[in-house]
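Hey, quick one: can you model this chain's 3D structure?
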Amino acid sequence: MSIPKNLTRVIVSCTLMMMLNACSFLQKEQANPSGLFQGADLLPILPVEKWLIGDETELPLSAGDRVRVLVEDGSVFSGVFEVNVDGGLHIPYLDEIDVVGLNIPQVQQKLLDQLLAQKMYQPGFSGVSVKILQWAKIQIFVQGAVFKPGRVLLNDKLVAQQTYQQTQESGDNPVNRYLTAGLKGAGGIRPDADLSNVSIIRNERIITLDLSGIFNGFPVKDIPLIAGDRLLIPSLGRMQIALMRPSQITPPGFQVFMSNLSQPVSGNAPAAISKSARSIPYGTRLLEATMSANCIGGSWINSSRKVLHSSKNQLSKQAFVKVYDLDDVVANADQLENNPYLMPDDGLACFDSDATNVREVAKFLGDILDPVAIAKLLFLL
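Sure thing. Here's the predicted structure for all 381 residues.
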């Protein structure tokens, strides 16, 4: 029995739709393999312009921010006040004023309304001024493709600066409370980060930004942060060589553990164990690191050495160890298979050349077969 053409078309169309939906689902799963950002796509998305500020008065306040309040003919209401941990301003003779999440003009209007509501002044009074004095340190939360995800403290200034600003009328530039500072505070982005889809979640609203301009010289919209903001940096699932260099959002350098011993030592001091961990610039490759560990160079007898490289896959978090022939590393320095990039807390251990090993074996045998040594041993027995 033949199948009608119309029915065949319907079956084919349904099959294609099911395949497209399955592919779309797989793409979403691959873009978010860890499941960190589940639910983020359900939040309302705001345009970037709503999060940009024209000046400091538009940045929402957080707990710990300091403002200078001036009320005309009201010295008891004037002074320097800090936003309390509960999010309010506590001004003498006035009920608590909730200000967290409000910008300076909104705080000024709310203070004026409070003065009038408590009948401290007559209707029509407008002699109220609120100016930002100092932005406080804040805590944000960073997830995704960064080296140190978790809670990050931003704008951690010295106490001496707080004392100095008491004499100022107003003004503070919170350069350490911006998005780029938050990424830097989380250890910097990993080379698998998707910089075209960096998200900020604030008060159950989300915004997505493209920060790739930091690496190619194009303008970047840096967003000021407030306490409680969440930064989500998705992973592309692959390494990007272009991101393996120092920048505003990558680590300036990191620690690598190195060992270059020709003979075992009996203690930490002779091995200079305190210097075994060295700081190298971000983007350093195996060849440069072995030079830093003094594994390359010297006489011919020290050539053809090997180096052990221990690291951890930044995507799977699995540790691995590989031994490289330094001659191959030098001859193929432009190939990642032979000259990989190093990551924070990697380990390097250099092994002696074959000529050095033969020399040590000969020295060992000479010590054993030395007649004087044998005589001393027999005498002791």
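One thing worth noting: Residues 138-243 form a domain with the Outer membrane lipoprotein wza fold like fold (CATH 3.10.560.10).
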